[in-house]
């Protein structure tokens, strides 16, 4: 049965590997992060430290919230705040040897899940799109 | 088989109905739309006209692209541009009597799909989260 085939897939077979994943560095200012997010078109991306270890997730919403002043948008502030200060460090992650089902379960509440190694090294991401493609295949057989 | 149960679900059983969907009006300025997107936390929402008919989708990325000046962000422009001028009017939609499989297929490339009636009236949206919840249930039985 096709759905049984999916159940044997591992995260490492499903993930977009790190070199293809847009990210920002935790020490960079929000202004830089916002430009990366606009240029790549992504609503949120992983945050890594200078040793390429995973630290959290930064989104356009979070950055824009910081720019909201009393009367208007105050984009100048964004040069003075680092990504690390506003990123979300508290997100679920996966390991490369986790399963399709582990990924499916976590992707119910998150558009993508980061894959990290034993030393927090950033390996890649699993996206909802990848899971949905596999599920769609299993319904067509 | 659980996966067969999913195949009989219709879009009307899966959708978030219109009164629960955040949206903006096509005649409103981008500045208003951006505030709605930040306040609700959504990366993009449906655009409706004054008769509650579906017209397109507006995203934070699209609005922020409009604010990018030569040297910096120029948020003042956003008061002068209407949602209709920059929204994406060219998105796939579904009808209430379409199936789970129709929705699954369109959600491979879109985080949500708008559901519209015969007269373009806006009925609701189907989200990836809703499909993934159903798929996850079918793997646990
Ligand atoms: N440049 C592009 N080309 C084609 N389609 C695009 C696209 N940008 C966005 N999409 C479509 O929009 C969905 C939502 O993108 P979003 O940026 O909100 O949310 C994305 C983004 O936050 C992150 N993501 C995906 N690919 C990434 C990458 N290469 N680098 C960094 N983050 C990525 O994972 C989330 C879910 O991605 P997913 O593929 O499931 O779902 C994507 C994809 O179907
Ligand atoms: N306030 C909140 N509470 C709990 N979880 C939240 C949330 N805001 C976002 N999320 C989570 O983040 C995912 C991506 O949200 P995003 O805003 O990029 O993308 C959303 C948004 O563009 C749109 N959307 C979802 N619900 C909406 C609503 N009630 N009104 C308007 N647009 C909605 O559909 C896309 C996919 O939604 P989906 O539920 O599959 O996936 C959501 C959900 O899992």
The radius of gyration of chain A is: 17 Å
* Distance linking N and C termini of chain A: 8 Å
Q: What form of chain A results from the Cα inertia axes?
A: elongated
Q: Which class do the helix and strand fractions of chain A yield?
A: alpha/beta
Please describe what this structure looks like.
2 copies of one chain form a homodimer. The first copy, chain A, contains 7 helices and 7 strands; from the N terminus they run H-H-E-E-H-E-E-H-H-E-H-E-E-H. With 141 residues, chain A is α/β, with parallel strands linked by helices. The mean pLDDT of chain A is 94. Bound molecules: the ligand Nc1ncnc2c1ncn2[C@@H]1O[C@@H]2COP(=O)(O)O[C@H]3[C@@H](O)[C@H](n4cnc5c(N)ncnc54)O[C@@H]3COP(=O)(O)O[C@H]2[C@H]1O (2 copies).
In short:
The structure is a homodimer of 141-residue chains. Chain A is 38% helix and 20% strand. Chain A has helices at 2-7, 11-14, 30-40, 60-67, 83-86, 100-107, 128-139; strands at 16-17, 24-25, 44-48, 54-59, 93-94, 112-116, 122-127.
Give the SSE layout.
Two copies of one chain form a homodimer.
Chain A: H1 2-7, H2 11-14, E1 16-17, E2 24-25, H3 30-40, E3 44-48, E4 54-59, H4 60-67, H5 83-86, E5 93-94, H6 100-107, E6 112-116, E7 122-127, H7 128-139
Parallel strand pairs in A: 2-3, 5-6
Antiparallel strand pairs in A: 1-7, 3-4, 6-7
Bound molecules: the ligand Nc1ncnc2c1ncn2[C@@H]1O[C@@H]2COP(=O)(O)O[C@H]3[C@@H](O)[C@H](n4cnc5c(N)ncnc54)O[C@@H]3COP(=O)(O)O[C@H]2[C@H]1O (2 copies).
């Amino acid at each position: 049965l096709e759905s049984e085939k999916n159940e044997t897939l591992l995260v490492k077979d499903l993930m977009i590997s790190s070199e293809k994943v847009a990210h920002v560095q935790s020490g960079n200012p929000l202004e830089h992060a916002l430009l990366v997010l606009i240029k790549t078109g992504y609503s949120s991306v992983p945050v890594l430290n200078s040793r390429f270890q995973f630290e959290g997730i930064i989104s356009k919403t979070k950055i824009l919230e910081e720019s909201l002043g009393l009367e208007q948008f105050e984009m100048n502030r964004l040069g003075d705040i680092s990504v690390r200060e506003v990123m979300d460090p508290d997100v679920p992650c996966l390991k490369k040897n986790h399963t399709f089902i582990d990924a499916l379960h976590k992707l119910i509440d998150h558009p993508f899940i980061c894959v990290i190694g034993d030393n927090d090294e950033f390996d890649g991401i699993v996206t909802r799109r990848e899971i949905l493609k596999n599920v769609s295949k299993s319904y067509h057989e």
